[in-house]
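Hello everyone,

My group is preparing for a crystallization screen and wants a predicted model to guide construct design. The compound we'll soak is zinc ion. Before spending weeks at the bench, it would help to have a computed complex in hand. I've included the protein sequence and the ligand's SMILES below. Output in structure-token form would be ideal because that's what our pipeline reads.
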Amino acid sequence: MSRIAFEREIFEAELLDPYHGFAPTRTKVEARRDPLTGHSARILPAGSFPPPARHDLERLAAETRKTCPFCAERIEEETPRLPPAVNRDGRIRAGEAVLFPNLVPYAKWSSVSVYSPERHLLSLPDLTPSLVAANLLAQRAFGRAVLAFDPTSQWISVNANHLPPAGSSIFHPHLQGSANPLPTTMQHLLAAVPPADVRAYVAAERDDGTRLLASSGGIDWVASFAPLGPAEICAFAAGVGSPHDLEDALVEELARGISAVLGVYDRLGFQSFNLALYGVPAAQTLLLRIVARGYFGAAERSDAMWSERLQWEAATDLAPEHVAELARPAFARRG
Ligand SMILES: [Zn+2]
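Reply:
Good plan to model first. Here are the tokens for the complex, ready for your pipeline.
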């Protein structure tokens, strides 16, 4: 029997419904616990929340373009450079992507990499596999350059706040890299999981099949059993412990999958996402997490409530098995 447990419990909430003459009504809510980290999640009935609000991205792009420091007209003058001991050119380029240090020091080594100085607006369907792959390659080069100079900063991650609902302060689409001597909370939790349990978890998801999107090119894609946010999808890469260790083929495979996930988010009505790619260096465990982000309804409610921020338990009406069903065709036809 597998050592991996998919803990789930369904509760019935009972109330007298004012919309149906105060007749007794029962609704179901499901509590789940993540088999690896132990964090919990609530799966609410489908349709519990209104669909995400759509923003006029063209208007937001026009408002922010004139002073954008990441656009081609200003990027050379207005973004910082890496110290020459880390990178001789000061900035790292891969395809259209350009990487430079983050002015706001979130980490000992903190970078920003724009997909392209020429592309101030990239909606989710615009994030093609080649744009994503080039940006991941820029981040891989950053990780390698930092580690060559400062081997203690081994806790490396690649992250994204795509557009303001995801927390981005600069509109122009970009990734963020981070290299630290100490792990983040999630890196710490992942490091506490024996590598054999990670492998057992992936095998259990393959056996179960209801949340598996695809297994190809050394990467398993899964809709999270206990999602951290709306429509969370995870990828597990075999035999790698850090983003800077990824071989070209794995970068391309990740990029194809990320692009497919973003297409699914677009079809669900989302325009924004967070992404985190991180590993456990000695354990050869590498995990990618992506969640959709949005504001909901006419009042533009945030998707993070007390449950997400303070109880560390996401509540979502997008059941992971439903997300997997929607995403599977996109993975089958990935370019
Ligand atoms: Zn710009």
